[in-house]
Amino acid sequence: MSHVVTKTGTLYGVGVGPGDPELMTLKAARILSEAPVVAYFAKRGKTGNARRIVEGRLGAEAVELRLEYPFTVEVPVGDPRYPAEMAAFYDEAAEKVAARLDEGTDVAVLCEGDPLFYGSYMYIHDRLAGRYACEVVPGITAMSGCWARAGAPMTRGDDMLSVVSGTMDEDGLAERLGAADAAVIMKAGLNLKKVRAALARAGKLERAVYVERGTMPEESITRLAEKPDDDGPYFSLVLVPTERRTV
Ligand SMILES: C[S@@+](CC[C@H](N)C(=O)[O-])C[C@H]1O[C@@H](n2cnc3c(N)ncnc32)[C@H](O)[C@@H]1O
Questions:
Q1: Substitution candidate for ligand 1 out of 77, 219, 235, 239 with most atoms within 8 A of CB
Q2: pLDDT confidence tier of residue 74, bands split at 50, 70 and 90
Q3: Domain residue limits at 118
Q4: How far apart are CA 218 and CA 230, in angstroms?
């Protein structure tokens, strides 16, 4: 009696680093060069940041699975339809990846920075990691890329680092920033006015460094106190290095 053994593919969550293509691990580069299918999220009409980072690194035969967001600004984040529509989109995206895994094909899902640190890859991981063999390849986070470029020693000794999101309300931000020795504020650019006010309340504005598109060709780094406006793109963050001096 014979029976067919079907082997499903492996899901790879691949961190591709903060922007500079050289800030990718050797393991990520190898998996990307071998992956038969490479999946990534992208906004309509855009290449996709993670895809841009891996340009020239994919195998010649690689099939690209572009997972295109259904809307960009048409449905605002605060709209009650937003969570349901995004969940449906991620369900559908995960099933497209699952279909390739079911055929026995490995799929590498790209993720900017580190996949398990605020990464978009997690929407796929949450839905599929329990169903398929899965390997996550860590990546250099945006914050470490940014503090390296800014030359900012962030934490020393027993310092406490807080990572907060600029989407939080001003009171919450001021409280957490006030308690931290050092901090990183993610998603800062679109919330810069509030972030600036919270840092001033926490007595940390003078130390804050604003980094836009860190490690990318369009990078811009400035002391936040010297930035003349509150405009910034999605790909920006604020660093608050420790006050502690070296011994
Ligand atoms: C969805 S999170 C992705 C985080 C990523 N997985 C990581 O490991 O850093 C997106 C936020 O990361 C920050 N970010 C990502 N890349 C950046 C870059 N090159 N320069 C500055 N900030 C960046 C921004 O704050 C942006 O709003």
A1: 235
A2: confident
A3: 10-140
A4: 18
